[in-house]
Amino acid sequence: MTEEQQPMLREEVLAGPGDSADGVVIRTATGNDLDAVVRVGHQTWQATYEPIAGAEYVAMGLAKWWTTDAVIPSIRVGRTLVAERDGEVVAMAAYGTQGDDLVLWKLYVLPEHHGHGIGRRLLAAVIDRGIELGHTRLVVSHVDGNEQGNRFYERNGFRTTDREAGGSGMPDTIWMVKDLTLQGESTEGTQP
Ligand SMILES: CC(C)(COP(=O)(O)OP(=O)(O)OC[C@H]1O[C@@H](n2cnc3c(N)ncnc32)[C@H](O)[C@@H]1OP(=O)(O)O)[C@@H](O)C(=O)NCCC(=O)NCCS
Question: How is residue 171 annotated by DSSP?
């Protein structure tokens, strides 16, 4: 490998198998991950939101946010991350900006891979990106009634700031924020 090639590789893999005992790799998604990202979204949405918000809500969300056309732009600009376990994409995160804030738009781990620290590692990678970009706040939202999501974010140092009414039978959206300037302290302070 030439010296010119090395920096690209280092940017691509954000946390490699050498960083964890279970060999999970966190990396920037590429076009080759398109189908896997959509699959993670579809499987996780179904399992998470159908019991909370019903089949109609799931169908609406999948059509709006989880088509290939909907996920391509974020992959193109390098703002989608994936977690790979044993060579299979098992989770994804996508972020963007809103004013000065970094926003975590999507964080989805396939149900059978929950509870292994994969969500936490994807979140940490997004936080690292946000800090590198100079953001001081990370904003997330989740569907009201998603207790697993709410608990995950609380454990990771987010506090609730707002409730947005769903209307027309749709569930409310809960907005949360994490202060990235406290990152060193709050990560330690939120370990279970
Ligand atoms: C919320 C979600 C992203 C969390 O992902 P996850 O990979 O299960 O999360 P983690 O494993 O990092 O953390 C979950 C728990 O496992 C624990 N854990 C188990 N093994 C671990 C390990 N090896 N390293 C770190 N934590 C570990 C964590 O401490 C945490 O415990 P806690 O709930 O008592 O705080 C995932 O449950 C999910 O995709 N849910 C459905 C979709 C969703 O709600 N998305 C977020 C809202 S948009």
Answer: P
Choose among 169, 113, 180: nearest CA to 140.
180
Residue 119 Cα to ligand 1 midpoint, Å, equals 5
pLDDT digits (tens, 9 = 90+) for 112-127: 999 999 999 999 999 9
Architecture of domain 13-179: 3-Layer(aba) Sandwich (3.40)
The type of residue at 82 is V
Q: Per residue in 131-170, pLDDT tens?
A: 999 999 999 999 999 999 999 999 999 999 999 999 888 8
- Answer yes or no: pTM beyond 0.85: yes
Is 49 a pocket residue for ligand 1 (Cβ < 6 Å)?
Answer: no
Domain boundaries of the chain, sorted by first residue? 13-179
Closest ligand 1 atom, residue 151 Cα: 33
